[in-house]
Amino acid sequence: MRKLKYRAENSPQAWLFLLPALIIIGVFNVLPLIKTFIMSMQKGTLNNLQFNGFKNFQVVLQDPRFHDAIGNTALFSFVVVPVGLIISMFIAVTIFEKIKYKSLFETIFFIPYLTSVIAVGIVFRFLFNGDYGFINYLLSFINVGPINFLDDPSMSMTTLILFGIWSGLAFNIIILLSGLRTIDESYYKVADMFGATKMEQFFKITLPQLIPTITFLLMMNFINAFKVYAQVFSLFNGKAGIANSATTGVFYIFNKFYVEYRYGQGMAAAVILFALILLFTLIQNYVLKRISK
Length: 293
Hints:
Radius of gyration: 24 Å
Helix content: over 70%
């Protein structure tokens, strides 16, 4: 009789150990997701919901505010993620190659990641203040400004993007530094023997070796960027900028659900945003796999 190979998924003991985690995931992740899909096809109050078909989706898709929210979310995502990743790559490589006390600087750059986004947003609100903000004070030395970062509708998204880039640096830098440590130093020694420049080593050795790390960061950063809410809430003091000029997808959902009490429409918007994130993630993974090959 042929002996079967051991597989963890066929072991009752393995499922027993996984059961607590599976229960928590089911209660706090799977059930809310199912409830979201159900509520997206209902109307009325939370105590008296009635079936409404796809009318909520029709209302949301025809709402100009939802179009603006998705546009702002896309603008935020497609600017913050690549720009933030490029800056993070530059800082990570500099720390790895040039800085002597790497662990100290890693700690310094990791501290913002441990800090509450709301707390950091309050600090940035003072930094961006049009009257006494430190950023306008620095700009005055080059005869620029003062710029009304917070109270000018045309500047709302620019301000949010600047804050988004900064808030994502810490996580990116730590992950990239971890990836840099996994690269075999013998590659660089051989490259030095053949006279390769630092720039050539970066594009021929460092960057290709970091593709799995960069793929992970792109996926995580884009998902988080599409779900941006806390940055908007903290930076504009609970609002979405002047005249809702910085409304994002999640902020639109929040307003529909908790402000306007249109629960079905809010959940319909959530389902649409979920579908957009899922579709973009699948396309991104496909493209990155093709590039890596």
